[in-house]
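During the reporting period, our protein records have gained a structure token line. A sample record is set out beneath this paragraph:
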Amino acid sequence: PDNVIGVRAIGEVDDDDYEDVFAPAIEDRLTRHDKIRLLYVLGEEFTGYGDGAAWEDVKLGVTTFNSYERMAIVTDSESVRRTIKAFGWLIPGDVQVFHLDGIVAATVWITD
């Protein structure tokens, strides 16, 4: 659906990825929808966040804070899973964390 953004992180996510890919995709969808849904896959190819990525994530989160209806985070990274479970309640909207083998369930949940 047009209100869903799907992102797969490959390699190291850096500040340019936020500025060149992530933020423009979100801003584009928000021109057409009041609330959007995000499917964010951090698969085996994901190696971590580079310098500046955390700051870009914070900036994007602040500017789009109330814009999410649902977020599905798909990852087997225990550190990411713990962080989302610890702080996900701060994000308005529904946030679910799925293991990589649950990508089909995540896709169904985010598009349902």
